[in-house]
Design a protein that fits this description.
With about 260 residues, this protein is an alpha/beta fold. Helices cover about 45% and strands about 20% of the residues. The chain is globular. The structure holds iron/sulfur cluster. The site of iron/sulfur cluster has 13 residues, from helix 2.
Length: about 260
């Protein structure tokens, strides 16, 4: 039985050909400034919330910032980040790490000060795989944080504010609700988005929270999309993204240099 991780659906829908290159042909892809910074802020949160399961209190911010810096230095040191595309192009490894760390630690500090204090984790980075009756595939996910009040928290790092339709268009809330109930056997209360934002250009930093209770219709729509992806994969159908789409650029597509459709 095929198994798809939650992130596979978004990747496939942005560009099925990039999905094929990365997940079927196994072509190596490199991260970017944004993915490296987002991973680093996550690492800071994971450090604090993991120890908080036992201690019940937040750790000192210095520990969070150390985990954030370590994540950036590890990614850069292991050549996982593309230093040929903006805004890191032409930089040495040391300068690139410094540029990413500069705002990563500020975002991690904001998260630690404003969002993490009200999170009461009972599980952090929890891997879950579920079978859904009537669907011929399994779906996997990794929950950032399962909380004592039957919520699931997820940290999002972005360069722009996310509200309105963006919140209800995401696959994570309905999927994580299914995963939470299968994993814990308890009724799901709601999905909590914790956002840390660093705006482009002005580098304005702020944090905020949004709570979502996915509807049955959103759950069915999400599963229908997984089904459509599954059928395309079985048929070997992996069309490229539109050339004018934002995804189809060396900055946002990690398979750009392997792609036969760009010119
Ligand atoms: S460059 Fe465009 S078409 Fe090619 S893999 Fe990336 S998103 Fe898809």
């Amino acid at each position: 039985m095929n198994e798809y991780h939650q992130s596979a659906l978004s990747s496939f829908e942005y560009c099925a050909y990039a999905y094929h290159l990365e997940r079927i042909e196994g072509k190596r892809s490199l991260g970017s400034f944004a993915t490296c910074r987002g991973t680093a802020v996550h690492a800071g949160r994971e450090h604090n919330l993991s120890q908080k399961i036992e201690s019940g209190v937040d750790c000192q911010v210095d520990e969070v910032l150390d985990a954030t810096r370590d994540s950036v230095n590890s990614d850069i040191g292991k050549d996982r980040i593309d230093l040929a595309v903006e805004p890191l192009d032409g930089m040495s490894k040391r300068d690139a790490a410094g540029k990413i760390i500069d705002t990563a630690v500020k975002l991690a500090e904001l998260d630690h000060e404003q969002l993490q204090p009200t999170v009461r984790p009972v599980g952090v980075e929890v891997p879950i795989v579920i079978e859904i009756p009537g669907y011929p595939f399994r779906v996997g996910m990794r929950l950032d944080s399962i909380n004592a009040d039957n919520t699931v928290s997820d940290l999002k790092h972005s360069c722009q504010r996310r509200d309105g339709l963006w919140l209800t268009d995401q696959y994570q809330p309905p999927l994580y609700a299914l995963g939470f109930s299968a994993h814990t056997g308890r009724p799901f209360k709601q999905f909590v988005y914790d956002f840390v934002i660093c705006t482009r250009g002005a580098n304005r930093l702020y944090a905020y929270r949004r709570e979502i209770m996915p509807t049955r219709q959103q759950t069915l729509a999400m599963l229908n999309r997984f089904s459509a992806m599954h059928e395309s994969i079985l048929k070997g159908c992996f069309p490229p993204s539109h050339k004018a789409a934002w995804k189809c650029s060396p900055v946002y597509c990690s398979q750009y240099r392997n792609c036969k459709y760009v010119f």
